[in-house]
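Q: what sequence does this backbone want?
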């Protein structure tokens, strides 16, 4: 539209300038036909109705006169108001026939020039009109396309409102009557915008909110570490030149759990299935940790919370404190390490392999957070050989430590009268933890 306005303005200005130039040219032609050889022609007064005064020079004489437009002849006619000269040029007083012939040639030349300029202007006007009509047609087409697009948007908005209302009705019906009904999206047409009910489904549909996504979580819980009241005998013959014989007796009270700190993440791979990696640390008389990797499935209940059952395979490390042993010589030697402290601490550590089925109940909070409560059962699949961990001080009272396999010939650990070479603390049983998660 801006280009069209600019084009029309340009054509109008051009036409005005051309008309002014043509009028001045035709006035001059009328005077020079009357007085050939006239120079310094100029219009001294323009009355605005195609008439006025003029002046010029002829053979050093100043000539003045008037001009007016003859509508019957279709051209300007000039007159002389002052005498030209006392002895006029021969060209002025030449024969009447020669003057008429010369005037006819000049008029023919002027007419030809006027016709050529008129044809040129008419061609330019036609070209400008053609461009204007093309621009108007394009603007009309664009306006029609915009109107069709607006109608389509209104139609889609109407369909979306109908779909939302129908979904609300179905959710209300699901709460009151049981399984939900689905909506067949192909039932929406231009002639029938109402949704059509599909057949009832007896199975709940799990909806995933992750495609893909990841959840990080951190929390605390209680981990199973079972052992009963134990009577423990420990004997050790150190590796010093004197081969000191050390014997201690311990009693451990019954224990079933330990406090734990949990952290992990879940990765959702474009579907309801997800992978998880979880680690934990536990503290107290029984210390250790573990990590498991597994896979699970995500259920969206549609009631504001989610359920995520999973199964993981993990490795665990458990360390149980027995007590101290006391030397009866200058030092106690374990391998090449010499403990000069009066007492040396003893712990039994053991790795194990476990299977952990669990389920997490998740409550979304705001847009990017969640609170979860997880519970499951820790199944101990295998135990590996245990080690004795010794800790004390060297001769400079610097803390040192060393280890010895529990099945070593110079070490003995008896539990309730029977020798054991594996840990007696079994990480098996129910566990529970509460965590706070961040959705990413």
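A:
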């Amino acid at each position: 539209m801006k280009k069209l306005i600019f084009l029309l303005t340009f054509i109008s200005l051009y036409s005005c300038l051309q008309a002014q130039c043509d009028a001045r040219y035709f006035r001059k032609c009328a005077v020079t036909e009357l007085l050939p050889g006239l120079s310094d022609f100029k219009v001294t007064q323009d009355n605005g109705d195609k008439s006025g005064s003029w002046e010029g020079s002829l053979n050093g004489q100043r000539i003045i006169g008037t001009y007016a437009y003859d509508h019957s002849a279709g051209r300007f006619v000039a007159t002389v108001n002052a005498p030209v000269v006392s002895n006029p040029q021969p060209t002025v007083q030449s024969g009447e026939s020669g003057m008429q012939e010369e005037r006819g040639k000049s008029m023919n030349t002027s007419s030809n020039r006027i016709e050529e300029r008129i044809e040129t202007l008419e061609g330019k006007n036609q070209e400008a009109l053609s461009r204007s009509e093309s621009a108007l047609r394009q603007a009309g087409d664009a306006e029609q396309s915009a109107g069709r697009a607006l109608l389509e948007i209104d139609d889609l908005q109407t369909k979306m409102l109908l779909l939302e209302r129908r979904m609300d009705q179905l959710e209300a019906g699901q709460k009151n009557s049981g399984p939900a009904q689905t909506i067949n999206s192909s039932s929406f047409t231009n002639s029938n915008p109402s949704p059509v009910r599909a057949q009832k489904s007896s199975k709940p549909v799990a909806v995933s909110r992750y495609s893909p996504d990841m959840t990080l979580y951190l929390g605390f819980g209680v981990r199973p570490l079972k052992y009963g009241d134990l009577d423990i005998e420990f004997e050790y013959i150190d590796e010093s030149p004197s081969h000191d014989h050390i014997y201690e007796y311990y009693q451990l009270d019954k224990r079933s759990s330990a406090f734990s700190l949990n952290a992990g993440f879940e990765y959702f791979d474009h579907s309801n299935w997800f992978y998880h990696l979880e680690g934990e640390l536990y503290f107290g008389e029984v210390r250790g940790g573990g990590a498991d990797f597994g896979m699970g499935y995500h259920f969206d209940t549609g009631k504001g919370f989610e359920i995520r059952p999973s199964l993981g395979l993990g490795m665990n490390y458990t360390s149980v404190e027995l007590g101290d042993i006391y030397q009866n010589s200058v030092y106690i030697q374990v391998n090449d390490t010499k403990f000069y402290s009066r007492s040396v601490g003893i712990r039994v550590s053991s790795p194990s392999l476990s299977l952990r089925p669990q389920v997490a109940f998740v409550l979304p909070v705001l847009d990017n957070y969640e609170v979860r409560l997880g519970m499951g059962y820790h199944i101990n699949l295998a135990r590996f050989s245990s080690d004795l961990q010794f800790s004390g001080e060297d001769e400079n009272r610097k803390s040192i430590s060393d280890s010895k396999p529990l099945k070593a010939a110079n070490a003995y650990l008896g539990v309730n009268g029977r020798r054991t070479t594996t840990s007696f603390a079994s990480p098996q049983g129910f566990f529970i933890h509460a965590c706070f998660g961040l959705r990413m």
